[in-house]
Amino acid sequence: MIKNKKLNTLKEILLSQKEKYKITESFSYRFDSRTKRLILCYTTTQMVRKNGEVKVKRVNREKYKSNINQDNFRKYFKGSTTIVRDDAVFVKKMREKSEEKYEVGLDEKDFLWWIETFLSRGVGQTKTIKRLSPLTIKQNKYHLNEYFEWCVNKHSDSVDIDYHIDMGANMFEKYYEEKLTSGRWSPSTIGISFRNIRGFYNFIADRSRGKFPYDILRRLKVPQAQHSRDTINSFEYDKILDFIVSKSEDVFWGKFLLMLRLQLKTGMRCGEVVNIKNRNIDEPNKQIHIIGKGEKSRVLNFGHEDDEKIWTDILEKKHKGIYLFHRTRIQFYPKQKHKIEVDIDINLPTTSSYYLQRFRTMRTLLDLRGKGVVTSHSLRRYFITRFVKETNNRDLVRQIVGHSSTRMTDYYVGSMIEQDTKTTISLGI
Prior knowledge:
By secondary structure, the chain is of the alpha+beta class. The protein has 3 domains: 1-104, no CATH class; 106-226; 234-413, hpI Integrase, Chain A (Orthogonal Bundle). It has helices at 2-20, 83-101, 111-119, 134-154, 163-182, 187-207, 234-246, 251-266, 270-274, 308-317, 352-366, 377-391, 394-401, 406-413, and strands spanning 28-31, 37-50, 53-69, 123-125, 129-131, 281-282, 287-291, 297-301, 326-333, 338-349.
């Protein structure tokens, strides 16, 4: 019973860290029943010929961790030093080495071949054909790898893509049911998974010359997730401003606070903030060139007197590396009770997960409305709503925040009825 409890704790830690560090490789851990030592469990691909045809076989692999057991494992799964990140790299290398070992390759009958083809595409189509962002490909990879591992473990015949013609809908229905009841994913994440896998199947249909039917998941009615996300209110806005002032000299919060101020001031997306490049900061004209969704660019001005303070701070932060907000870590010296920010790589951007983690910590400290209601995206909503109120110029706001249409801007604005808003007309009686 104790063993099971510790294993369950380990599984929870693994799932949370995979999501935190955006790890897409599939692997797990278990404790040896005799020695209680930790074992890394993963699979590799093996190509075999059966009746003259190439088949994909998944082979179970294990790596013994002699220094880690069920009593001391927690200290190896802490923060950025967690072994989960190193093991993800190891598993990826082992899989690549395994695939290179066999001269025979995958073909159009293989589930894995189609996944690799799908992930290697450079453009996609919704209403129009457009370039795919690295974030879209990363999302595709995460959800398809999860689905692939589940399918081959539950249905060994699913390595053959033709098996999906009759069984694809049934498999996804069971996969969906497991995710829904496990509590691991939110309804929103499950919906994203559905759209990724449906798009993958339709990609096959478009390119298989009539051999694979279109929309094989059409009978599944996946409910739309109801978002409760909201903009911050004026009370929360004041709390955040006070927090910025109170923590302005704290090294731990320093980089995050400048990012936070930029998002509040401009309505930028989180991904746009972390990816600001130093070369896109135009000092003479006091402008920053932003690369947004779909590689669309726009310019933000910082020439107003209200922007003097933040512009000075941006220039102080600017350096010779590629990204304004580069990879760093906080080094703490317990004896001196002193903290400093240490560079990790000035040519790599700070991750979105760093920013979001800091935001969640701040949200807890300030007792803001919780998960799913107030998020970093709430600052973007606040900016849009406030700017529309102050300027009554939706098209200008659309251009500033990088929306493709004012319809999306209107969606973000939502209700603008406040307590002092007049909502009636005079009748004279």
